[in-house]
From TrEMBL, chain A:
<feature type="domain" description="FUZ/MON1/HPS1 third Longin">
    <location>
        <begin position="421"/>
        <end position="521"/>
    </location>
</feature>
<comment type="function">
    <text>Plays an important role in membrane trafficking through the secretory apparatus.</text>
</comment>
<dbReference type="Pfam" id="PF19036">
    <property type="entry name" value="Fuz_longin_1"/>
</dbReference>
<dbReference type="InterPro" id="IPR043970">
    <property type="entry name" value="FUZ/MON1/HPS1_longin_3"/>
</dbReference>
<dbReference type="InterPro" id="IPR004353">
    <property type="entry name" value="Mon1"/>
</dbReference>
<protein>
    <recommendedName>
        <fullName>Vacuolar fusion protein MON1 homolog</fullName>
    </recommendedName>
</protein>
<comment type="similarity">
    <text>Belongs to the MON1/SAND family.</text>
</comment>
<feature type="region of interest" description="Disordered">
    <location>
        <begin position="89"/>
        <end position="115"/>
    </location>
</feature>
<dbReference type="GO" id="GO:0035658">
    <property type="term" value="C:Mon1-Ccz1 complex"/>
</dbReference>
UniProtKB/TrEMBL annotation, chain B:
<keyword id="KW-0547">Nucleotide-binding</keyword>
<protein>
    <recommendedName>
        <fullName>Ras-related protein Rab-24</fullName>
    </recommendedName>
</protein>
<comment type="similarity">
    <text>Belongs to the small GTPase superfamily. Rab family.</text>
</comment>
<dbReference type="InterPro" id="IPR027417">
    <property type="entry name" value="P-loop_NTPase"/>
</dbReference>
<dbReference type="Pfam" id="PF00071">
    <property type="entry name" value="Ras"/>
</dbReference>
<dbReference type="InterPro" id="IPR005225">
    <property type="entry name" value="Small_GTP-bd"/>
</dbReference>
<dbReference type="InterPro" id="IPR001806">
    <property type="entry name" value="Small_GTPase"/>
</dbReference>
<dbReference type="GO" id="GO:0005525">
    <property type="term" value="F:GTP binding"/>
</dbReference>
<dbReference type="GO" id="GO:0003924">
    <property type="term" value="F:GTPase activity"/>
</dbReference>
Length: 532, 202
């Protein structure tokens, strides 16, 4: 394996000539660059990683934006209400999901109760899972495990709690333990502890970022202030009562984290759509929503891709929050058949308060989902009416067909680029926090091969974002593939090529790729930033 | 398909009860005549509507299917405020679910005088299949229903048993009530679109 670090200096084609200067030269034709921002653009992974767990105010102009104030009033009410949940009543009546099947299962559990932890710890299948995630309270109470049942892992949870508090005793925070090819990462987020155990190629910062996402998901369901409040009331509180039904969201999120590049890149993928269609959709949302007070975001998404996003002036949406919305829609099949009204906390927007979401699919014959997020929880019927008008207009203008066609046909393969030895790539436009990538094609046909490719991207990503030695460019020639990672001010590019490609050709292909993306940029990215 | 039709919701009904006791399934059976054995906890609440004709009167029922999880407690007044009927569900194969049903019955009586209470024991099919599965005694619940001046049904969303009867009764009681003025729906903000529902039900 020839690892040439910052390779491809000077001599190559102008576009790929080396570092910052190139970025400047390229500026005008760098694909997907836009001065109009609708998503918070997180600059690099480290920042993103740091940024993920610091609160983002949502406003363009500081934390004390008008909306927060509006919100604050309403929140007091709700959070106050949360406090009223009668704790005593809940003690000791856990897991009462009493469907027929569940009852039967519970009966079976009883008989096996004695062989708690050991049973899992002796199960090779359980142990060999690539990535475990555990969540416990600071006092060691089980909250969630990705595999198995959390209340059967009491000893293990106790051990994790002991490790955390042992290190905390010396006024330090445990971050990770590496044992062989296993990494144990810890994220202590009072009142919770999150633990990841992985033997995948994901790096420690990447794993911590994943745990941060998991934590954000929980905050999204409960709000940060409710979490703290519950805990102040009773240190031994069993969170599972409040999290009931959330396991599904966590499970789904963890599966996406292991396979979807959006989290790794801190970016959002848009459904490729003709500009005219996208504009009509956006205009329609604006037309029927701009007069609705307190509406903060209106967006249409499908299959983890963004179709349109309209926002209240002054407020940006953070990609990490958008990912949680994707996850919510993705994991909740039942949204397809009903009109829903739900409290949603967007942790980067405001970790301590809820927005209220009118969530519904556009129509029986259209797979896209409309989310209208408001600070006013009394607004359901207003939003319901707006939704109907939006759908009617989209139908009149054939946008539903447009969306359906795009869902069926807009994915492209790397063949479209016309760079024969290029196998696959991820391209992130940093200014817009959006990315694009082709569908998997040979040699990435099976889920296993795709997983391996994702692992390569994780490694490449780790190399260019390494804290001790960040690189602008990585070029690695290996037995089975050639890898290229390239980071400039405007973009991040990760690509795999044939193993025998010459460096010269690789450069030609990459430049061709950049030109191709530039040509397609209006379809692949949303470069404007519409507001109500 | 493009035919637009807004009509008023004549009657607001709210579904309440412990997590996974079968509220969503009951609504699905009533509106869409179908059943799904896979459990997906409701998040927040889902709104649906269905028109029922009783005694020559067509009443459009707007149904709030709330989530059972206690983290949504603070939001529940939003859904039951102004409701004409509350369907308070418990799972007859799970005695713990009764506690929660009683909690809701109290809550409704306290805050919504106009709202009638319909207790609904769900998953009747499981008990018919295996009598030992029953954990909640029918007569106990009938007695309880009497004390709160409510009605009681036992239903199965899987087979559909008693589901239509439950909702027909709810609408009949409403229409038959001298206080009800059908010509002037209470709340004009309850406009909604029923085209989709019309195709699927009734
Ligand atoms: N056999 C049988 N199973 C039922 C019946 N009603 C509901 N279930 C099952 O019970 C589980 C929970 O049903 P849901 O209707 O989703 O419960 P819910 O009350 O809406 O739950 P939350 O949304 O969490 O409050 C599902 O697996 C259903 O299939 C029934 O009449 N018979
Ligand atoms: Mg439900």
């Amino acid at each position: 394996m020839a690892d040439s670090g910052t390779a491809a200096e000077g001599k190559a084609a102008p576009a790929l000539a080396g570092g910052e200067a190139v970025g400047d030269e390229l500026k005008d034709d760098t694909p997907g660059v836009s001065g109009e921002v609708m998503l918070v653009n997180t600059d690099s992974f480290e920042e993103c990683n740091h940024d993920l767990d610091t609160q983002f105010s949502g406003g363009e102009d500081g934390p004390d934006s008008p909306l927060r104030k509006v919100q604050r009033e309403q929140e007091n009410e709700l959070v106050g209400g949360m406090g009223n949940v009668s704790l005593a009543e809940e003690e000791g009546k856990q897991g009462s999901e009493g469907s027929g099947e569940a009852v039967a299962a519970a009966a079976a559990d009883d008989s096996e109760e004695e062989c708690v932890d050991e049973e899992y710890l002796h199960s090779p299948e359980w142990i060999q899972k690539e990535k475990h995630v555990f969540i416990l309270s600071e006092s060691g109470k089980p909250i969630y495990t990705r595999y198995g049942k959390e209340d059967r892992l009491v000893t293990l949870f106790g051990l994790m709690q002991a490790l955390v508090s042992f290190v905390a005793d010396s006024e330090d925070v445990i971050r990770c333990i590496v044992a062989g090819d296993h990494k144990f990462v810890f994220l202590v987020k009072s009142p919770m502890i999150l633990v990841g155990v992985s033997h995948s190629v994901a790096s420690i910062p990447q794993l911590i970022m994943q745990l941060t996402y998991v934590h954000n998901q929980i905050v999204s369901v409960l709000t940060g202030s409710a979490l703290t409040r519950m805990f102040e009331k009773r240190r031994n509180y069993d969170f599972r009562h409040l999290l009931g039904g959330t396991e599904r969201l966590l499970d789904n999120l963890l599966n996406m984290l292991d396979s979807h590049p959006s989290f790794l890149l801190g970016g959002v993928q848009c459904l490729p759509l003709a500009t005219a269609t996208r504009d009509t959709i956006t205009q329609t949302i604006i037309q029927y929503c701009s007069k609705i007070k307190n509406l903060v975001f209106g967006l249409i998404i499908c299959q983890n891709q963004l179709i349109s996003l309209v926002r209240m002036k002054k407020f940006l949406l953070h990609p990490a929050d958008l990912h949680l919305l994707f996850n919510l829609v993705n994991a909740t099949e039942s949204l397809k058949t009903s009109e829903n009204w739900m409290p949603i906390c967007l942790p980067k927007f405001d970790p301590n308060g809820y927005l209220y979401g009118h969530v519904s699919y556009l129509a029986d014959d259209c797979e896209a989902c409309l989310l209208l997020l408001s600070v006013d929880r009394e607004q359901f019927f207003t939003l319901s009416e707006a939704k109907q008008k939006i759908v009617d207009r989209l139908r009149r203008h054939h946008c539903l067909e447009g969306i359906n066609t795009a869902i069926r046909t807009s994915a492209y393969t790397v063949g479209a680029v016309g760079a024969p030895e290029l196998r696959h790539f991820l391209y992130k436009s940093k200014t817009t926090a959006q990315f694009t990538c082709p569908e998997y094609t040979a040699p990435y046909n099976t889920p296993e091969q795709q997983r391996q490719l994702f692992g390569l991207y994780q490694q490449l990503h780790h190399r260019v974002h390494s804290v001790s030695r960040p690189l602008k460019m990585v070029y690695m020639v290996m037995d089975t593939h050639t890898l290229l990672g390239w980071v400039t001010k405007e973009f991040e590019l990760y690509a795999t090529l044939e193993p025998l490609v010459t460096k010269h050709n690789a450069i030609v292909y990459i430049n061709k790729l950049l030109r191709w993306i530039k040509n397609e940029e209006n379809k692949l990215f949303i470069l404007s930033s519409p507001t109500f | 398909m493009d035919r637009k039709m807004y009509r008023k919701v004549d009657m607001k009904v709210v579904m309440l009860g412990q997590m996974s006791c079968g509220k969503t399934s009951l609504v699905e059976r009533f509106i869409y005549k179908r059943f799904n054995s896979q459990y997906q906890a409701t998040i927040g609440a889902a709104f649906g509507a269905c028109c029922v004709t009783v005694q020559g009167c067509e009443v459009c029922v707007g149904l709030w299917d709330t989530a059972g999880s206690e983290r949504y407690n603070a939001m529940s007044p939003l859904y039951y405020r102004g409701a004409k009927a509350a369907v308070i569900c418990y799972d007859i194969t799970d005695d713990e679910s009764v506690e929660r049903a009683k909690f809701w019955a109290n809550e409704i009586q306290l805050h919504e005088e106009e709202c009638r209470v319909y207790l609904c024991g769900t998953k009747l099919d499981l008990v018919l299949q295996d009598p030992k599965a029953r954990q909640v005694d029918l007569h106990d619940m009938l007695d309880y229903a009497e004390t709160i001046n409510g009605r009681l049904f036992e239903t199965s969303s899987k087979t559909g048993e008693n589901v239509q009867e439950l909702f027909n009764t709810i609408v009949q009681d409403y229409v038959g009530d001298p206080k009800t003025d059908l010509s002037a729906p209470q709340d004009s903000s309850f406009r909604l679109h029923t085209q989709r529902i019309r195709e699927k039900c009734c």
